[in-house]
Amino acid sequence: MIVGDNDLCDGAPDQEPGQGKPDPDKTGHDNSGHRARLRKRLLTGGAEALADHEVLEYLLTTAIPRRDTKPVARTLLARFGGLAGVFNADSAALAQHPGMGEASAAAVRIVALAARRLARTTATAQPVLASWQALLDYLTIDMAHLTVERVRVLYLDTKNRLIRDEHIGDGSIDEASIHPREVIRRALDLGSTALIIVHNHPSGSPEPSRADTRSLGGSRRRGGCSGSRCMIM
Fold first, then answer.
1. Where in the chain are the domains?
2. Ramachandran class of 113: left when φ > 0, alpha when ψ lies in -120 to 50, beta otherwise
3. Rounded CA gap, 200 and 175, in Å?
4. What is the CATH topology of the domain spanning 146-232?
5. Distances (CA, A) of 187 to 150, 175, 215
6. SS3 assignment, position 133
7. What are phi and psi of 180, to 5 degrees?
8. Which residue numbers in the chain have pLDDT < 50?
9. What does residue 115 show for φ and ψ, rounded to 5 degrees?
10. Residue-level pLDDT at 232
11. Over the stretch 175-211, which tens digit does the pLDDT of each residue have?
């Protein structure tokens, strides 16, 4: 028995709950030639072989094999502001988007998960301070899409290798709180000798706010980093 790509999908094409009417895109619309061309460009081209909507379009065919996925791809990009926004969108929001469902939302989410895992592996393959760009890439993938400030702490060992990456908390668009003594207590529990406190600025301004100066900058003054090397990003 020969099994094609479309035969690997479990069940009917993804659709909204309660949808039972035939979809014209699922009947009498042969997308095989178009998808074959996308597949060839994907496999033989470089990083820019496919446009953003084509990346999503092809990905969605794994969950919705018998429907034209280009319209859904375009509306997802428009709604979430681009490819990064789609991949980092809330699972429920993806599943409830017109033309989507749980299977197609899962297909999108697994790509985002794989990207984070790959970036993390690259960032931790060598000492953090020796692979600064890999660390920045990892943090960007995980935090660039956020609409609120997030604080996380990277705990390092004596060779500056990552022991643990922990999400400390979220705040508002321009402020997030941190409790230095708790961070240091955690560092001692993990046997960490260095740590990097990371937070983002959804507002777009790279300048530290007054709250940043009080909470993050105050870590050293309160003795929070005594016994450990502390870097604040």
1. 24-116, 146-232
2. alpha
3. 10
4. Cytidine Deaminase; domain 2 (3.40.140)
5. 19, 24, 18
6. helix
7. -55, -40
8. 1-13, 15-28, 219-224, 226-227
9. -65, -40
10. 63
11. 566 788 888 899 999 999 988 888 887 776 666 666 6
